[in-house]
Design goal:
heterodimer; A: about 230 residues; alpha/beta; six-stranded mixed beta sheet; globular; disordered C terminus; B: mainly alpha; MetI-like fold; 10 helices
Chain lengths: ~230, ~250
Amino acid sequence: MRTILAGLEFAVATGSVTAIMGPSGCGKTTLLGILAGLDTDFVGERHIALRPDGRPARIGFVFQEPRLLPWRRLRDNLRLVLPEGVNPAVVDPLLAEVGLAEAAELWPRQLSLGMARRGALARALAIDPDLLLLDEPFVSLDTATAAGMHALLLRLLARRAGLTVLFATHDPAEAALLADRVLLLGGSPARLRADITLPAPREARDPVKAGAALRAALAEAGPIPPSPTASAR
Amino acid sequence: MAARMRQEALARAGSLLLLLLLWEVAARLVGNPRLLPGILAVLGELVREIQSGELQYHLGITLLRVACAFALAMLAGVALGTALGRSPRLDRWLDAWVLLLLNIPALVVAALLYIWLGLTEAAAILAVALNKLPTVVVTMREGARALDPAYAELARAYHLSHARTLRHVVVPQLAPYTLAAARTGLSLIWKIVLVVELIGRSDGVGFRIGLFFQLFDIAGILAYTLAFAAVVQLIEWTLLQPLERRVNRWR
């Protein structure tokens, strides 16, 4: 038994986008798992605001690897997660929104990584989430594909005002482009080392300047002591 | 694609023809129709058995026993094997039993059941099913152990109901193992059912072959073997292979 996270306390506003940064293996995935309710082996409290209709919030999760069921066609992968009673036709406009209308009948094996990632994103949106958790959703994509995904996510967020997003990333440029706020984790067990609010709004931001400013702010938070697991690898 | 399939069909037909040819040559070399009859003699015997209705009757009864034993062993084996694969504790308790059953000769199971239950249909079907059960259990246990926890996590993240998780997440992962269990199980059942019929039933292909054996009627034995092989091939082509293609179409 190893303690991964410690003394972590933060709140994010409804409708905000928060980037979680920190070295690999520092506990970003664990934190998202706890927030999603997947990891219950923790001491502490997690509060997620109820929906306006008083029901528990819906949480969409995008795993680091797309994790589509390979034995179900893309469209069926989306339909599968719909709550009971929701018209299965709602997935088609979503697939169109992420540019996969033509791929609806394909098997996941036939999709490129970028397409599968977009499919996983559409699946998370299919449940009409209040909270969207993304675990390094753009990692190991080539620059052009990643840029396309960033633009896509910005478009999707612009159309969903009340959607709260937390995403893990190790790329300051990505965080500066997409987030309102950056939480920097570090150490072992990981603690909150910096809480940086980016100049809003996202649309008006100069991504190059914001990236440089974020890098400077992250550097100011001090050199991150290497976590034993990361250095052991 | 079509050309390759035609080539494959040709190769299959060719290999079958070659086998028949070898048989005929061997029969001529032996030169004793009582010891190894030629193809025509066996086919004649086959036609006679069909005309008298004997073949359909005995083959039908054997197929019915195969179907019952197969269904019984698959149902119990899939359930038990999956349970053992999911629960290491249960597996520790029952592993030795499975191993024991796996290694008990088919004849021992059949003899014991016939003594305990009488020379009944239930004893015969149970004997066949019990012989097949452990191989199904072992295969399904492997399958259940290989279930990917990443997909289980996905099911939890999206709050899929038990029924949906079973149908869309668990069953597709177990399907190749179930199919493998069905295939090896079926070939095992063909072999066992005749022995069980031979020692304890007064109908079925096994009984009939026992009769031919006492009369040294090799043409009769081969005629039934031929009919049996044809049925097995038919099941393979019309049931198992299409099912396999359907299960594997996403690959």
